[in-house]
Design goal:
Elements: H1 4-16, E1 24-30, E2 36-42, E3 44-45, E4 61-65, H2 79-94, H3 96-99, E5 103-106, E6 109-112, E7 117-119, H4 128-135, E8 139-143, H5 155-164
Antiparallel strand pairs: 1-2, 3-4, 4-8, 5-6, 5-8, 6-7
């Protein structure tokens, strides 16, 4: 079950965010036998997307599917979706004090709760899907600590910022 910060962010993004967030997109899921298959899925994904104990399964995280790089190789920039993604990242960074999120990851970058940014890359990966997932080339990941997961004090300010962005 999603916590209130995730529920609120999802609801506000569907109502006031870019209309693309209301669409379905090809997404990748690992199957029980370790193979990967592409299926259609929502652009806003919360609980049930990670392993046991993961912040997604604890209801404290939302993935916003906006590709920063073009499939299938995920090397060339996907300008249309990447621009929307960074627009949202910048809004979330600006609203960090009221949103009180813990971590945000997108396009080979990770931000902590203080707003500091770090590279999100490794020297080697087991396979291409591991690289795409770790570097977050397909989505913005945003999560909250347990103590802030029910915070909704950001709702009005987020709606205002999204409306100002003219999505």
């Amino acid at each position: 079950m999603a916590r209130q910060a995730v529920v609120t962010l999802r609801r506000v993004l569907l109502a006031s965010g870019p209309s693309i967030l209301q669409t379905q997109v090809f997404d990748h899921y690992a199957t029980h036998d370790g193979k990967t298959k592409a299926v259609m899925g929502p652009r806003l994904q919360g609980p049930g997307q990670g392993p046991p104990g993961d912040v997604h399964n604890l209801g404290r995280a939302l993935d916003i599917i906006l590709y920063s790089r073009k499939p299938p190789m995920f090397v060339a920039p996907f300008d249309e979706e990447r621009d929307l993604g960074y627009g949202l990242v910048n809004i979330f960074l600006e609203l960090r004090p009221s949103m009180k999120w813990a971590t945000m990851i997108y396009d080979q970058k990770e931000w902590n709760s203080a707003g500091a940014v770090f590279p999100r890359k490794k020297d080697a990966y087991d396979d291409e899907m591991a690289r795409i997932k770790f570097e977050h080339l397909t989505h913005i990941h945003i999560d909250w600590s347990d103590s802030n997961a029910d915070n909704v004090d950001f709702e009005d300010e987020l709606v205002s910022n999204l409306n100002s962005a003219d999505y």
